[in-house]
Design goal:
The protein has 739 residues and is of the alpha+beta class. Helix content is 22%, strand content 28%. Strand 28 and strand 29 form a beta hairpin.
Length: 739
């Protein structure tokens, strides 16, 4: 590796964010920011993701190297070697190294980017500037039950299958083809893709047609080169290797040769005591492989450790499995969950009379042991939805969508967003002597569909004003990327209400929360991820694990829950001073509140008195449990919010001292029975059989449950609204409107 290479990596030593390099001629070349999320199957990439640790100024690093399915063996080897170099230069060897293989990407990797596209070609064919006058027909497949990925596939009817959604881009017309067994998330995502293709690559001129399997037109088949049979549906986890009981192997330097030997143990999971500081260990979990490097391992062992994993996988005939390298003392949470004693089990809480949920009895049957082992093996990841372009200290201008236009938000209101509105945020920063632009469009959960659509169009208009140089990022309330939060520097608060819409179907007057008593919930697991959201102004909205800001006509309070962390207290202080304005501000520690405080909340009432979370450094984990494919399946949701809870599914929320079973109002009977059995199997596999299990019905969530969600909305409608049907109706209305 050349000195220039070292200098390039060192530039990101102390930077938080996500950075991408592509392997070109055996060197790592910086990848253009506007291309983040696009991966070519003939190439290899390195992705460094650095985030600030909770309650600390230190950074936590994950270095991914992604191997395209059509990349050469030499490129793959260079990616692995350069990842080791990056680890040494940027993190001092403290990064978790992750081997990602094209087609088998982990959820944590996919969540790094707002949109992920897998395109054919490589260095020689990639990154040609879009020419709207010269177009090559393309076919894209959208696949995934929760994180939907977009992959370019051969332009042929043979590429179609009944289980997925496909987008056929013919320039003048864009077809969305829905397979008979495709899911609503794939369909809804495809609508967004069609609109984005039309806006970004066809100047807004293309026609969009949505076709269901069996209703194809002659023009559609002609665009594919001729009609042909449609393949059978393929499972969303096709090609994935299911998790099994971890297998432990010791790698030691024996007279210059690397010796690998199995380490036996008893029980469902190994003990961390088996890991010796002087050696390297491989932990084979089936769906992923870990390489643990002891602090006293020899230089030779450290150098060949990740290559030893590659050889191990090749020897087992499993080259597509992802591999992660961790070092002693800086183990990732994902690794710690593979051992029985990295996390000490917390004491169970006391359930008060106010809890509407009940402790579920142990089911008479056990769920699949494979599913339970997979849940235990897959650890909760840190918040990885962020795409951190820089440190967030650039220039930001915020606009609210009002009457089809952009209305600038006053500097005094910077950081205050209303959930009934949509916003456009223009952020600019300097990189390598050039001004860069990011345009976010934030959509409040109570904002109308028309306002959300207008925010996307206004973002495109702003991008055009900037010469097409901006990166556009859509942000939904509750799923804000970390970089978006950084921009507001601890001042972000989401308020109830909103501006009157300019659309005829919307109310004709503003609805704001400026009058009366207001209560704001401040929650997060690190300074950059912590912000406030308005909740019902009543005592039952409080919880001991977080901070709250109470604002009345002539007074304001900052309330510290006994289990709140330093970041929450710091951000709550910033928000309290901003919202209090000229009102006197009182700091109230839990248990020291005066009568005036309780009177503003309508009197004392029971609230969740359990610290959130109770698992030390391990955040709560949310699993979706579904049998939509005909068999019970589980998927972990990262950076979850209330909007992730779908009425037709069931969920497990593991707070490490309680396991909640949330039952959606439209969940079927098979799923209801399956999730209870799975809860029992999961706790047994985790070595926590005595952990209480609390069954919760949608619409009747107790305070102990809602405390784990920022700004829980008790007025959210329990009825299910199909996101695809809503988007399709909006699209059809646009297509039918006169030009």
């Amino acid at each position: 590796v050349t000195p220039r290479q070292h200098t390039m990596f060192e530039a990101h030593r102390a930077q938080a964010g996500t950075f991408v390099w592509r392997i070109e001629q055996f060197e790592a070349k910086p990848y253009p920011k506007e291309q983040y999320g696009k991966f070519y199957t003939g190439d290899c990439y390195i992705v460094l993701h650095s985030v600030q640790k909770a309650s600390s100024s230190a950074l936590e690093h994950t270095a991914y190297y992604w191997l395209g399915a059509e990349s050469s063996q030499d490129e793959r080897g260079a990616a692995a070697l350069l990842t080791v170099t990056l680890d040494e230069e940027c993190t001092g060897g403290a990064a978790t190294q992750v081997r990602e293989v094209g087609g088998s990407e982990s959820a944590s990797f996919l969540a790094l980017f707002p949109r992920v596209q897998f395109l054919t070609g490589g260095v020689a064919s990639g990154f040609t500037k879009v020419d709207r006058d010269a177009h090559e027909a393309r076919l894209f497949r959208l696949k995934g039950s929760r994180i939907v990925t977009m992959s370019q596939v051969p332009l042929s009817a043979a590429s179609l299958n009944s289980g997925d959604v496909f987008v056929l881009d013919l320039k003048d017309v864009i077809y969305q083809w829905n397979g008979r067994s495709s899911n609503r998330k794939e369909k809804a995502k495809a609508v967004d893709i069609c609109l984005d293709l039309r806006a970004e690559e066809h100047g807004g001129q293309a026609r969009i047609e949505v076709l269901d399997e069996g209703s194809e037109t002659v023009a559609f088949w002609e665009g594919l080169g001729g009609e042909g049979p449609v393949g059978a549906a393929q499972p969303d986890d096709e090609g994935a290797v299911k998790a099994v009981q971890p297998k432990l192997f010791r790698c030691e330097d024996a007279a210059g040769a690397l010796k690998v030997s199995a380490v036996p143990y008893s029980g469902a999971l190994p003990s961390k005591a088996l890991l010796l500081s002087g050696d390297v260990f491989i932990v084979d979990c089936g769906s992923e492989i870990f390489c643990w490097v002891g602090r006293d391992a020899s230089a030779e062992e450290r150098a060949v450790s990740i290559n030893a994993v590659d050889k191990y996988l090749d020897g087992k005939g499993r080259p597509a499995v992802r591999a992660l390298k961790v070092v002693e003392g800086a183990e990732a949470v994902a690794f710690k969950h593979k051992f029985v004693d990295f996390f000490e089990p917390p004491a169970p809480p006391s359930f008060g009379r106010d809890q509407r949920g009940s402790v579920a009895s142990a089911p008479s049957h056990r769920s699949s042991g494979e599913l339970a082992a997979e849940m235990v093996a897959a650890a909760a990841q840190p918040h990885t939805r962020a795409q951190d372009f820089d440190d967030g200290l650039g220039q930001a201008k915020v606009y609210r969508v009002v009457d089809f236009g952009r209305e600038a938000v006053a500097a005094s209101d910077f950081g205050q967003l209303y959930e009934g509105d949509s916003y456009v945020v223009h952020y600019s920063y300097e990189q390598n002597g050039r001004e860069q632009h990011i345009v976010y469009f934030w959509q409040g959960r109570e904002s109308s569909q028309d306002e959300k659509g207008a925010s996307a169009l206004l973002t495109k208009e702003l991008d055009d004003e900037l010469g097409g140089a901006a990166t556009q990022v859509r942000v939904e309330q509750g799923h804000e990327p970390e970089h978006f939060l950084r921009i507001f520097r601890g001042k972000l608060v989401v308020r109830a209400g909103g501006h009157a819409s300019g659309f005829r179907t919307a109310p004709a007057e503003d609805a704001t929360a400026d009058d009366g008593v207001q209560l704001y919930h401040v929650k997060g697991y690190g300074r950059t991820s912590t912000y406030g959201a308005q909740v019902d102004a009543r005592a039952s909205s409080l919880n001991s694990g977080d901070c709250f800001v109470l604002v009345a006509h002539d007074s304001a309070y900052m309330w510290h829950g006994s289990g709140s962390n330093g970041d929450e207290r710091e951000v709550a202080g910033t928000i309290a001073q901003m919202l209090a304005a000229s009102r006197p501000l009182t700091v109230a520690e839990e248990g020291t509140e005066g009568d005036a405080f309780w009177q503003l909340l309508g009197g004392k009432a029971e609230y969740a008195r359990v610290k959130v979370p109770m698992g030390g450094e391990a955040p709560p984990r949310l699993f979706e449990v579904s049998n939509r494919t005909g068999a019970l399946d589980v998927e972990e949701i990262f950076g979850f919010a209330q909007t992730d809870l779908l009425a037709e599914e069931s969920y497990l929320l593991d707070t490490h001292n309680v396991l909640f079973v949330w039952i959606g109002g439209q969940a079927n009977e098979t799923e209801k029975a399956g999730v209870l059995g799975l809860a029992d199997g999961y706790l047994k596999a985790a070595g926590r059989p005595k952990t209480p299990v609390v069954k919760v019905r949608a619409g009747f969530e107790p305070a102990l449950f809602t405390a784990h969600f920022r700004g829980w909305d008790y007025d959210a409608p329990p009825a299910f609204v199909d996101p695809y049907e809503a988007k399709l109706a909006a699209l059809q209305a646009r297509e039918a409107a006169p030009p």
